[in-house]
Amino acid sequence: MDKLKINQEYCKFVENRLPKTRFFPSLLWAFLVGGLICCIGQGIFDGLMALFPSLSKDDVQAYTLVILIFLAAFLTGLGIYDRIGVFAGAGSIVPITGFSNSIVSPAMDFKNEGWIFGVCVKMFSVAGPVIVTGIASSMLVGLVYYIIGLFG
Amino acid sequence: MFLKYLIVFGVGGFVCLIAQILIIRTRMTSARILVLFELIGVLLQAVGIFEPIKNFANAGITVPIIGFGASLARGAMEGVKKAGILGIFNGGVTATSAGIAAAVGFGYLFALIFKAHSKKS
Amino acid sequence: MLNRVGERTIKFTKTPKLISGYAIVGPKEGLSPVSKYFDYILKNDLFNEKTYEIAERKMLEQAICGATDKANILSTDIDVLLSGDLLNQIISASYSARQIQTAFVGVFGACSTMTESIALGACLVDGGYCGRVACATCSHFSTAERQFRSPLELGCQRPPTSQWTVTGAGCSILANEGNGHNIVYATFGKVVDFGINDMNNMGAAMAPAAADTLRALFRDTNTTPSDYDLIATGDLGKLGSEILVDLMENYGYKMGENYCDCGQLIYSNKQRSFMGGSGCGCSASVINSYILSKLDSGDYKKVILMSTGALMSTTSSQQGETIPGIAHAVVIEKGR
User: Fold this and answer.
1) CB 3.0–4.6 Å: which of A118, B121, C178, C327 could bond C272 by disulfide?
2) Delimiting residues of CATH 3.40.47.40 domain(s) in chain C
3) Residue A131 and residue A133: Cα distance in Å, rounded?
4) ipTM score
């Protein structure tokens, strides 16, 4: 028998045998947790705006993100964030708290491999791509914007 | 007030819902999801439709990583406006430096304090 | 003259004996339906050590020492230790061997290491080269997770086809004489790859290899599934074992009630382990506790043990390679 043909047949066969999971609960949890985290962010933002009216909106925005990152890092340290992630899925990945979790979790995990080669190196094992693609794409946007500025 | 939070909840939840569908359908890992949504944010900012969404949804769109991407792009654009070519290099990072520094700093701090727990489920 | 039957199966003529087994598992496995058979259950999965890696090798050391104690021999009486595990460069096995101080042969068969080492050990004993062989392996959820998937604290969902790496270790002592169960046949498996590339669906990746080895064993020994009291696969999980049953039916063998999968046995449905257990420690702990006691009690007279392994690494899977599977089978008959 043709080996490739078996492969495709088998993969199709496995595809059909995959357990039918219930989509809906996980979607609902992602929606609820994601929405809740955003609301917490909005709450912090509004609170800071009321407490420190002299700050600019952008600064308050930055403070809000720092506080959210701190909270997520703390919950990760306590070992709670990954349990939220088990049922929330994308709901706890996509908010900035997920970014924080993805930096703190490998840092904690690789403590035993030493500070330089463990914590410092592995800290970016998950979130590194986010920073790299983010900076690279922002440079691209800046470049395009600059070129447009030259002509326009 | 209540409506504002409802919109924040709805938009933020919707973004996560889309991501969850992607995870289920394509088995993307969390790093890929973060990169994808960040790039969406960069794109939204670059074509100029992020600001209107932000004015409507507030934290609903700035708290998801989309907001992080948008800040990067906005920083680069403003940097170019202010400093010309140098802005291409320092604009994006300057705008998001607080977030990155917070994540790295707290990551270091909590790695110092805590130890990874084993999972139960 | 070669002591072989059929195409691929080894027939042992001097009946090497499995004289004792010891199984040690982590706290989660301690809640399993077969937990009463385990010799030792950890209270915390760090085993009072600094790192999970040290905990893993401490489990392995305890399994080896426990098995030799049960067989009433000293660890220095072992001629060769055959051992392996899942970590890079099989460090758990090598570092345990540093403590045990016997001749050591490192074997790697991913999750198939348990029966691979039993089959190899039986060959050494049968050939008259060794009097006593220790076959041991271990795995630890936290070390495997760190190496193969994501950091422990990362909040992400496990896909429904994923399996839970068993925290556990097991050791079997084989000897040329003494009071034990007879190892009669062994079939070494071929590496079979049907093109599954999903790291979270190992059961489906390993099932074709398991079916291939099982078919070879049945054909070579001229037996059918109903000739055995138990056919136990290592860690195919729920999906993998369903696929195996289907594949075997395609090959013309009907698997009946006597078929079970160690990965499915070790966790109850309530434990959120999805398809079941996996890892070297899965088959090692179940074989050396549950199945061995059932052989002792006479519930089983003739069993096939077949651990299954997926031979990929993080590098190969990141480079888009598919997952090759392997399975080694041994046939054991009740002897005591």
Assistant:
1) B121
2) 4-175, 181-333
3) 6
4) 0.94
Residue position matching structure tokens 């004792």: C20
Please give the structure tokens belonging to residue A20: 């039918």
Dihedral sign computed on CA atoms, order C115, C118, C121, C127: negative
Measured CA to CA, the distance from residue C302 to residue C333 in angstroms comes to 4
Q: Which residues pair with C106 in a beta bridge?
A: C83
Write the residue in C53, C155, C195 that is nearest to A92 by C-beta: C155
Instruction: List the single best residue of C87, C148, C149, C154 to mutate versus A (max A Cβ within 10 A).
Output: C154
- Reduce the secondary structure of A41-99 to three states and give it as a string: HHHHHHHHHHHCCCCCHHHHHHHHHHHHHHHHHHHHHHCCHHHHHHHHCHHHHCEHHHH
**Residue B110 has what pLDDT?**
93
B92 contacts A135? CB cut-off 8 A = yes
CA distance A61 to chain B (A): 9
Domain C4-175: state its class.
alpha beta
Q: Which of C275, C276, C283, C231 is nearest to C253 (CA)?
A: C231
Torsions phi, psi for C52 (to 5 deg): -65, -30
> What DSSP string describes B26-64?
H---HHHHHHHHHHHHHHHHHTT-HHHHHHHHTHHHHSB
- For residues C47-75, average pLDDT: 95
Per-residue pLDDT of chain A (152 residues; tens, 9 = 90+): 455 567 888 989 998 888 776 788 899 999 999 999 999 999 999 999 999 999 999 999 999 999 999 999 999 999 999 999 998 999 999 999 999 999 999 999 999 999 999 999 999 999 999 999 999 999 999 999 999 999 87
C190 in Cβ contact with A147 (< 8 Å) = no
Residue percentage of chain C with pLDDT more than 90: 88
Structure tokens at C111: 């999750």
Q: What would be the CATH architecture of the domain defined by C181-333?
A: 3-Layer(aba) Sandwich (3.40)
Q: What is the pTM of this model?
A: 0.93
CB neighbour list of residue C258: distance below 8 Å, 6 or more residues apart: C225, C226, C228, C229, C230, C231
What are the backbone angles phi and psi of residue C257, rounded to the nearest 5°?
A: -65, -20
- Is residue C274 predicted with pLDDT exceeding 70? yes
pLDDT in tens, C88-113: 999 999 999 999 989 999 999 999 99
- Contact between residue C266 and residue C29 where contact means Cβ atoms under 8 Å apart: yes
CB C144 within 8 Å of CB C86: yes
Residues of B in contact with C165 (CB under 8 A): none
